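Comment on this:
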Amino acid sequence: MTYTIKLVYRLGSSPKVYVVSPKPLALATGKTSLPHVYDTAEQQICLYYNDEGKEKEWSPDKIIANTIVPWIAEWLYFYEIWLYTGEWTGGGIHGGKIEN
C-alpha cells in the first residue's frame, strides 16, 4: 500500500501528522474507528507520548527526520497489522480525545 502523509509543524510547537491518502483508511473487520489516532475522520495519527508531568518523547530540540518520520513508518506498520488482526500491537497510551 502507498500512503500520502501530511506533516504540519511550526517552530516550537508539536508536529501534527495526517494520513491524507488513502482516505478513508480501511478499518479492521468489526471496528468503527482507527486505533491510536486523535481523530478518525481527519486521520490525525498519534505518534508519541507528550503529556505534562511525564517524560516527553518528542520536543522542539529533536530532529523531525530522526524522530517523527521513522515514527510515521512505524505507525503505518502497526496499522497494517491491525487491519488484518483487529488488534493494535503498537503500544502507546491513550487519553483525552484519542480514539481507540
Notes: The first helix runs from residue 68 to 85.
